[in-house]
């Protein structure tokens, strides 16, 4: 492992400290100048090819300046060749469903939905990914049962929310609170409509 003022470099070295092959390389500072630190390096056979691959977790700042842990994946394609995948995921937002499949939770504002600090199910979208060879492939179409249930549940929530909006009345005693409540309901309305649209898109895709 090598860190300098510009780059984080991770590789495999021999006993003489000679680099045998590189694994990972990234600028050591974010676009706004904040430093990026290594949190963890884990070994795991991600694609079931018998070779140990690498999960490199870095501590970085997101767009709002909050410190988060991002996991990057590097796949060994041979004894001395490693392919660094372009797509990292926030460590707290993904889990392994099995040795090769990831379930990833992503905020809906990444897909055009309104920003929300809440952690409710209406504020997130779930994608499934599989490591295939040296690629990370989205496999949502293989999980249509999940998305069928999500569509049913989201439509129920949408009907319930529309009734709540219809019955909503402003409070003359606390109009600020009422406005916040209404804004929150419309945020959830937009997110539910986005979830429904994306779910229908998944279900309409042929295997």
Characteristic key phrases:
four-stranded antiparallel beta sheet; 207 residues; alpha+beta; 12 strands; 2 domains; five-stranded antiparallel beta sheet; 2 helices
Question: What does the model show?
Answer:
Helix 1 (144-167) packs antiparallel against helix 2 (175-204). With 207 residues, this protein is of the alpha+beta class. 26% of the residues lie in helices and 37% in strands. Strands 4, 5, 6, 7 and 8 form a five-stranded antiparallel beta sheet that branches. Strands 9-10-11-12 form a four-stranded antiparallel beta sheet, with no helix packed on it. The chain is elongated. It has helices spanning 144-167, 175-204; strands at residues 2-3, 7-13, 19-27, 37-44, 53-61, 67-78, 81-84, 89-90, 94-96, 101-107, 124-132, 135-138. The mean pLDDT is 86. It contains two helices and twelve strands, in the order E-E-E-E-E-E-E-E-E-E-E-E-H-H. The chain folds into two domains: 1-92, no CATH class; 146-204.
């Amino acid at each position: 492992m090598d860190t300098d003022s510009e780059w984080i470099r991770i590789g495999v070295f021999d006993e003489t400290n000679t680099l045998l092959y590189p694994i990972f390389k990234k600028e050591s500072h974010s676009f706004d100048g904040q430093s990026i630190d290594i949190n963890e390096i884990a070994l795991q056979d991600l694609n079931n090819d018998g070779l140990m691959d690498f999960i490199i977790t870095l501590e970085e700042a997101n767009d709002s300046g909050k410190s988060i842990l991002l996991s990057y994946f590097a796949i060994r394609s041979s004894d001395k060749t490693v392919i660094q995948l372009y797509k990292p995921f926030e460590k707290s937002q993904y889990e392994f469903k099995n040795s090769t499949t990831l379930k990833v939770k992503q905020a809906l504002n990444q897909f055009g939905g309104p920003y929300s600090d809440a952690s409710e199910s209406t504020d997130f979208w779930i994608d499934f990914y599989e490591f295939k060879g040296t690629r990370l492939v989205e496999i949502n179409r293989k999980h249509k049962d999940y998305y069928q249930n999500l569509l049913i549940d989201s439509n129920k929530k949408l009907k319930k929310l529309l009734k709540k909006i219809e019955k909503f009345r402003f409070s003359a005693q606390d109009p600020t609170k009422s406005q916040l409540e209404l804004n929150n309901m419309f945020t959830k309305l937009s997110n539910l409509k986005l979830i429904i649209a994306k779910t229908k898109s998944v279900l309409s895709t042929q295997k």
